[in-house]
Amino acid sequence: MSQEKVQDSVQEPAQDKVQEVATDSQSNAETSSDSGLLQEVMSKKSQIKDLQNELASMKAKEEGRRKELLIAEGKKDEVIAELELKVKEGESAIERLNTLEADQREYWLGKLPEDKQEKFSKHPIEVIQDLAEEYAQPTTNVKVDNQSPGTFGGYSSMAEWAESDPASYQKQNQVSKGIKIGYK
C-alpha cells in the first residue's frame, strides 16, 4: 500500500506539470486567436448594420406598397387619417422640443452674469452652456500683501530684517510700538 501511495504522489506532480504546459500553450493560442476573433466580431457587426439598413428600407417600401394598395382599393380616407395622425404626433414632438429648448436656454442664460445675458441670448444653447460653465468656475484668488513696502524695512520678513539690519530694525520697532521685539 505504501508503494501505491508513493506512486500516486509521484504521478500527481507530473500531471500538474502536464496541465501547466497545456494551460500555457492554450493561453498563447488564445492571445494569437484574439485578433482573429476581434476581426470576426467586427465583420459580424458590419453585417448586422447592413442588414438593419436593408430591413429599414424594406419596411419603408412595404409601407409605400400598403398605402398604394389602400388608395387603389378606394380607401384614401384611411391613408389620409394615418398621415394626419403622424403629422399631429410630429407637431406635438416639435412643440415639446421647443419648450425644452426654451427652458434650457433660460436656465443657462440665468447662469450668465446679467450684463452678458442679452448679448448671448441669440446664440445656440451649446455656446450659452459653455459660457455659463466658464463663468461659473471659481477664479483663483491671488494672495496680495497689503502691507506698506517699508513694513519689514524692505526685507521679506521681520526675521530677515532683524538679521540683516539690526540697527534699523530696533529703531523702527522701538518707535512704532514701544515694545522691543527681537529676532536673533
Mean pLDDT: 78
What gyration radius follows from the Cα positions, in whole Å? 42 Å
What order do the SSEs take from the amino end to the carboxyl end, as H and E?
A: HHHHHH
* Structural class by secondary-structure content: mainly alpha
Using the alpha-carbon principal axes, give the shape.
elongated
Total number of beta strands:
0
How far from one another are the termini?
90 Å
Q: Which range does the strand content fall in? A: under 5%
Structure annotation, total helices: 6
Proportion in helices: over 70%
Low-confidence stretches: none
Largest sheet: none
Which descriptors would you attach to this protein?
mainly alpha; elongated; 184 residues
Task: Quickly describe the structure.
The protein is an all-alpha fold and 184 residues long. The protein has a domain at 152-184.
Plain-language structure description:
The protein is mainly α and 184 residues long. The chain has a domain at 152-184. It is 78% helix and 0% strand. Helix 2 packs parallel to helix 4 (125-136) and helix 5 (158-164) crosses helix 6. The longest helix has 71 residues, at 2-72. The termini are far apart.
Q: Can you lay out the helices and strands and say which pair or pack?
A:
Elements: H1 2-72, H2 76-111, H3 114-120, H4 125-136, H5 158-164, H6 166-176
